[in-house]
UniProtKB/TrEMBL annotation, chain A:
Domain of life: Bacteria
Catalytic activity: a quinone + NADH + 5 H(+)(in) = a quinol + NAD(+) + 4 H(+)(out)
Statement: the UniProt record of this protein carries the keyword Chloroplast: no
Native source organism of the sequence: Schlesneria paludicola
UniProt family annotation: Belongs to the complex I 51 kDa subunit family.
EC class (word): translocase
NCBIfam families linked: nuoF_fam (TIGR01959), PRK13596.1 (NF010120)
Record-listed E.C. numbers: 7.1.1.-
Keyword annotations of the record: 4Fe-4S, Flavoprotein, FMN, Iron, Iron-sulfur, Metal-binding, NAD, Oxidoreductase, Quinone, Translocase
Keyword flag Acetylation: no
Record protein name field: NADH-quinone oxidoreductase subunit F
UniProtKB/TrEMBL annotation, chain B:
Major site of localization recorded for this protein: membrane
Alphabetical UniProt keywords: 2Fe-2S, 4Fe-4S, Iron, Iron-sulfur, Membrane, Metal-binding, NAD, Translocase
Domain 4Fe-4S His(Cys)3-ligated-type: 89-128
The protein's name in its UniProt record: 2Fe-2S iron-sulfur cluster binding domain-containing protein
Ranges for domain 4Fe-4S Mo/W bis-MGD-type: 227-283
Keyword hit for Iron-sulfur: yes
Necessary cofactors: [2Fe-2S] cluster; [4Fe-4S] cluster
GO CC term, one of those recorded: membrane
Compartments, record wording: Membrane
GO biological process assignments: ATP synthesis coupled electron transport
Membership in a protein family: Belongs to the complex I 75 kDa subunit family.
TrEMBL record, chain C:
Highest taxon, organism lineage: Bacteria
Cofactors named for this entry: [2Fe-2S] cluster
Binding site residues for [2Fe-2S] cluster: 84, 89, 125, 129
Alphabetically ordered keywords of this record: 2Fe-2S, Iron, Iron-sulfur, Metal-binding
Protein name: NAD(P)H-dependent oxidoreductase subunit E
Family to which the UniProt record says this protein belongs: Belongs to the complex I 24 kDa subunit family.
Record text on cofactor binding: Binds 1 [2Fe-2S] cluster.
InterPro entries: NuoE-like, NuoE_dom, NuoE_N, Thioredoxin-like_sf
GO molecular function: 2 iron, 2 sulfur cluster binding; metal ion binding; NADH dehydrogenase activity
Coiled coil segments of this chain: none
Length: 443, 560, 157
């Protein structure tokens, strides 16, 4: 297939790519200059017209989200950038921050102008030390060059951008969990309504956007909404609820793959293409057993579902939760899905914030059941119990406050439905595949 | 009027009322079970017990239901809202929630204080699955008896509703309680070394829906199904919190606050909650006493009541201007009236005065703030005036003699030798009559003391009438804000002690039983400022006596 | 003997201007203290609370949520080494790596070596999945870490 000329990753790998000097030499901050000459509402229109959908996992149309802010609000309005990137398998934000931070800052500045915000907080997961140093340096360069501060590029617009480091909790990636954490409290997501656009950070209107989304904004202003919309999968004209899958996407590829890495491709590439044409296939001559399509919250594609297009609609059609973060993890045929599922459940029970009953108790229970199965003491009816527990939790049925439980439930649902014979065989064999290694890291 | 439909049953709500689904369902006598929601605390919707189906009934009669469940506590109702609480979806969610809550819950019912008034028991019985499918070991958590001087925590019983934490942050403002850790290993705890000892601490035990937070005072003392409860009013300050008195076999076990939007709201302070131990003190007077020259000459009511009556009548008949009565601000309106009426009927020249009114510190407002600044919205006040009925007694005294004299004036009269006879009715268990006053009583020819605890003053009296504590009486207290509330006889006093109302009724010549409601109506007829009490029954929340309310009642009583 | 140094207090106060609420400085303050003292003592929590106009229980509540902060009984060693155990790393030997290091240095995950140099922990996805298995050594991520390379990294600490 025709090679896609990277846009988001264009400068990654070039010498001194994080610096302001090279960024400006490569044409950086022209988009911001353009945006500052437009009215905020016109900038919102451009972003809306581009069809950009948030890259953080929920895929909500970004421009539309910006219009949810109350009109004529006296302010302050805040922009919170979600750099918490903790979904297992995901590392695209890290690469952008480490190697091209100015691309992000430019997008942040454009967005703040559009939503009339004078203060942006980048909530950055603590483990990303190199990203912190790169962003910190880039922000200081911007202040020194008058790109941030009281008079952004001489336009009179005032903007402060602050870095705020987290403390290793996955739930801080949930937008209201992020807000609570930034406010200095335990990261218990808030009940909605009110939504952050109405009442967010410090109870003021707040937009929460992902790092990759911010980078896209820069290029949309540079090259135009039409350019962005020319990439990807158009919306189905017969379905008014389909917002399409436009623009380039950073796909993270990891697991049992020869060439793991971050690949920038138009939205809509299939899992098979990603694995075979870009990832170099599965090591050791093995074959694919299962693929995580977008971070483990999204569940699994079976080997027969590899031609699923990885856009906002594709994974849902084969029973996955969605595209998520487009973090693709390849699992080979020598790996037990029971072990894989245990790893996923253990993650969610460790990360559950504990606020609401089904998630707090359900994620821990599912992990305990899987541990028992893996100890050789499982029963077939445990599989139906796991499905029942998984089906009872989530914002989709309305039983929890946030989507962590949907993410916890989906791998269970997919694994047991799509790989049931494997699970039943494991149980009936009464074997245990708990390694001494795992006992060491048992939670 | 906006109409809400609860399971097809229409319920009208007020045009300006803002109710959630739980409150709307209560109007239809339908229960939506809930744990974390409380009308006095912020809404967190975290327990997920109150999940219901909601929808809208359109003007054309069609109903559009939302596809997913919603917590009833965070969903407001408006005209046309449909709430379904009994569909299969709702029932399945309730069963699931309860199974989750019971998953790691210890089987402590046989040893848990909460049994019999436990929301986990009750909801499991009504809405639960009836069995657990957990086969793995339960998560264990250590007990913590250091949570507070009055509070102990059985951590593994906790269902993480966080009512207790929200209480200490939003109501008491003292912020001692916190959640530690994350996920299924979360626990309630204090900051090490800073226990929950604020003056409202005991409320977290009431708020806890299960037996996690327990009162050390009540722990293991009594099963709640043996307790008999009566509604009453706490006497310890002029806030007049509405409470419930729980007793068995005339032993008082605990007090709990009772919701009263006109009095204090939902809570009570620890001073009142735990301050009743004197009721079973061995200093309680268990029988009347008559003394002559320091020796006890009689100790039965049959002998003493007629003796007191004739002694007082003789003293008042001889030198009425040198006879005085002191009425405690802890006495009820009825008791103040009976004593005043009896004496003033005999002679207008008798002096009536208020007993000692204890003022301790200043009014204590909550929630507290970290900086010490006063609260922007006061949610609870412990008042400095440590008496439940100063206003009521004062209103009675003003009626009978135009002015209300303070205790100091009587003490002065006594010291100056201006008194021959003195009737002291004391009901305040913490009132002290100083040595000088007691010594000056030697100047009296007649000293009658009606009290509940023995003291140097009672030792001095010729006649001691063994009175009742507030929990042993029927009567009326009027709080700082003019709210008249009934107190109810919940238990019998020790030995031959009698409620003061009965003593005074019989002393003043009344026949048959003392009935507070009847006296109340008499007072309402006679004393203008008590007119709103005319019905005798003061309802659950009491009746306001302040001028606005009085004017309304007066209008209603005008002859047509 | 106050727990926070004067420099720390100044740095904490200098952050107030960034946020409309002092409580937002909780995480930065906790990080500052732990970076310096390798743990956050109860006294430090009290002083942070006082500076931020919060109850000590509120600061402690936040601190205990994250599992990142250690109290005095569980202080960190000089260096903190995290080994990722999430799916991408587990598929490429992450858990075996952790077990091997624990055995070699005679610690359980979360513990510190006897010489006080290294605290070894498991981490959830460190976001370095293209270089699985990976380590986070203090503030630097090491990718494609074989057993030998891990031992070499730790021995240099």
């Amino acid at each position: 297939m025709a090679a896609f000329e990277p846009v988001l990753l264009a400068r990654v790998g070039k010498p001194d790519s994080p610096s302001l000097a090279t960024y400006q030499r490569d044409g950086g901050y022209a988009a911001l200059k353009k945006a500052l000459a437009m009215s905020p509402d016109d900038v919102i229109t451009v972003v809306k017209d581009s069809g950009l959908r948030g890259r953080g996992g929920a895929g909500f149309p970004t421009g539309v989200k910006w219009t949810f802010l109350p009109k004529g609000h006296p302010g302050p309005i805040y922009l919170a950038i979600n750099a918490d990137e903790s979904e297992p398998g995901t590392f695209n934000n890290r690469i952008l921050m480490e190697d091209d931070p100015h691309q992000i800052l430019e997008g942040i500045a454009i967005s703040c102008h559009a939503i009339k915000s004078n203060t942006a907080y980048i909530y950055l997961r603590y483990e990303y030390g190199k990203s912190y140093r790169a962003l910190d340096k880039a922000i200081q360069e911007c202040y020194a060059a008058g790109i941030l501060g009281n008079n952004v590029m001489g336009s009179g617009f005032k903007l402060d951008v602050y870095l705020h480091r987290g403390a290793a909790a996955y739930i801080c990636g949930e937008e209201t969990g992020l807000i609570e954490s930034l406010e200095g409290k335990r990261a218990w997501p808030r009940i909605k309504p009110p939504f952050p656009a109405i009442e967010g950070l410090f109870r003021k209107p707040t937009i929460v956007n992902n790092i990759e989304t911010m980078a896209c904004v820069t290029h949309i202003l540079n090259r135009g909404a039409a350019w962005f919309k020319s990439i990807g999968v158009p919306a189905d004209p017969n379905n008014p609820r389909d917002a399409g899958s436009y623009g380039p996407k950073l796909y993270c590829l990891s697991g049992h793959i020869n060439k793991p890495g971050c690949y920038e491709l138009p939205l809509g590439i299939t899992a098979r293409q990603l694995i075979e044409e870009y990832g170099g296939g599965v090591p050791g001559g093995r074959s694919v057993k299962a693929v995580v399509p977008g971070g483990i919250s999204m569940g699994f594609l079976s080997a027969s579902e590899l031609d699923t297009p990885l856009d906002f609609n594709g994974p849902g059609k084969v029973g996955c939760l969605g595209l998520g973060t487009a973090a693709v993890i390849v699992i080979d045929d020598a790996t037990s899905m029971v072990d894989v599922l245990y790893n996923c459940c253990r993650f969610f029970s460790h990360e559950s914030c504990g606020q609401c009953t089904p998630c707090r108790e359900g994620t821990a229970w599912m992990t305990k059941i899987l541990h028992r199965i893996r100890s050789g003491q499982g029963q077939i009816r445990d599989l139906d119990l796991l499905l029942e527990v998984a089906n009872s939790m989530g914002i989709i049925p309305g039983t929890t406050i946030c989507g962590l439980s949907d993410g916890a439930a989906w791998p269970v649902k997919n694994a047991i439905k799509k790989f049931r014979p494997e699970f039943e065989e494991y149980i009936q064999s009464k074997r245990s595949t708990i390694t001494p290694a795992e006992l060491v890291s048992a939670h | 009027m906006p109409t809400v439909f609860i399971n097809d049953k229409p319920v009208e709500i007020g045009a300006h009322e803002r109710l959630n689904c739980i409150q709307a369902a209560q109007r239809a006598d339908v229960e939506i079970p809930s744990y974390c929601w409380h009308p006095a605390l912020s809404v967190v919707a975290s327990c997920r017990m109150c999940l219901v189906e909601v929808g809208d009934k359109k003007p054309d009669g069609s109903v559009a239901m939302q596809p997913k469940l919603f917590p009833g506590c965070q969903t407001p109702v408006k005209d046309g809202t449909v709430v379904i609480t009994n569909s299969q979806k709702v029932k399945d969610a309730q069963k699931a929630t309860l199974e989750y809550l019971l998953l790691n819950h210890p089987l402590d019912c046989p040893v848990c204080d909460q049994a019999g008034e436990c929301y986990l028991q009750d909801y499991s019985y009504k809405y639960g699955r009836g069995y657990s499918r957990l086969q793995e070991p339960k998560t264990l958590k250590p007990d913590k008896d250091y949570i507070g001087d009055q509070i102990t925590l059985f951590t593994d019983r906790c269902i993480m509703c966080t009512r207790c934490v929200r209480f200490t942050r939003e109501i008491s403002g003292t912020g001692e309680l916190q959640v530690i850790n994350r996920g299924s290993v979360e626990e309630i705890d204090i900051f090490p070394g800073e226990p929950c000892n604020n003056k409202l601490a005991g409320n977290v035990v009431d708020l806890c829906p299960v037996g996690a937070l327990c009162s050390k005072d009540f722990l293991y003392k009594q099963r709640v199904w043996w307790l008999k409860s009566k509604p009453s009013v706490c006497p310890d300050c002029s806030t007049g919190c509405s409470i419930t008195v729980d007793q068995n076999n005339d032993e008082l076990f605990r007090l709990k606050p009772r919701f009263n939007p006109q009095a204090q709201g939902h809570f009570m302070c620890d001073d009142g909650r735990f301050g009743w131990k004197y009721i079973h003190s061995d200093r309680r007077l268990k029988s009347p006493v008559a003394r002559k020259d320091g020796l006890v000459t009689a100790n039965t009511w049959e002998q003493i009541l007629p003796a007191v009556r004739s002694a007082v009548e003789r003293a008042v008949g001889t030198t009425p201007a040198r006879f005085a009565a002191v009425i405690s601000p802890w006495s009820t309106v009825e008791e103040a009236y009976l004593l005043s009426n009896w004496l003033k009927r005999q002679s207008e020249q008798v002096t009536l005065a208020m007993g000692p009114v204890r003022i301790v510190g200043e009014d204590d407002h909550y929630p507290k703030t970290v900086t010490g600044a006063p609260p922007s919205q006061v949610k609870f006040t412990i008042r400095a005036e440590k008496a439940p009925n100063r206003r009521g007694v004062e209103m009675v005294l003003r009626h009978f003699q135009g002015a209300c004299l303070g205790f100091d004036e009587i003490a002065k009269k006594l010291a100056n030798g201006e008194l021959d006879g003195l009737y002291v009715m004391n009901a305040d268990p913490r009132a002290t009559f100083d040595d000088a006053f007691v010594a000056n009583c030697a100047k009296l020819k007649l000293l009658v003391v009606e009290d509940l605890l023995s003291s140097p003053l009672t030792e001095r009296a010729q006649y001691v009438l063994a009175g009742g504590a507030w929990a042993e009486k029927d009567g009326t207290f009027v709080n700082h804000n003019g709210l008249a509330q009934p107190i109810v006889r919940a238990l019998r006093g020790p030995g031959d002690a009698r409620p003061d109302g009965r003593i005074l009724w019989e002393l003043s010549g009344g026949t048959g039983l003392f009935r507070a409601a009847m006296i109340r109506q008499q007072i309402a007829n006679e004393i203008h400022s008590f007119a709103p009490l005319i019905l005798g029954d003061l309802g659950d929340y009491g009746v306001s006596l302040n001028s606005a309310a009085a004017a309304v009642v007066e209008k209603q009583l005008q002859p047509v | 003997m106050p727990a926070l140094t004067e420099t720390m207090r100044e740095r904490i106060k200098s952050l107030f201007a960034r946020y409309p609420s002092k409580q937002a400085v909780t995480l930065p303050a906790l990080h500052m203290v732990q970076d310096e003292f390798r743990c956050v003592s109860l006294e430090a929590v009290k002083e942070i609370a006082e500076l931020l106009e919060l109850h000590p229980a509120e600061v402690h509540d936040t601190m205990s949520f994250y599992g990142f902060f250690r109290d005095e009984q569980h202080r960190l060693g000089q260096h903190r080494v995290w080994v990722c155990r999430s799916l991408s790393c587990a598929l490429r030997g992450g858990e075996k790596l952790l077990a091997h290091l624990c055995e070699k240095y005679h610690v359980q995950p979360g513990d510190t070596t006897d010489d006080g140099k290294v605290t070894l922990e498991f981490a959830e996805c460190l976001g370095a999945c293209e270089g699985a298995p990976c380590l986070l050594v203090d503030d630097h991520c090491e990718m494609n870490v074989s057993t030998e390379r891990a031992e070499s990294i730790l021995s240099k600490l």
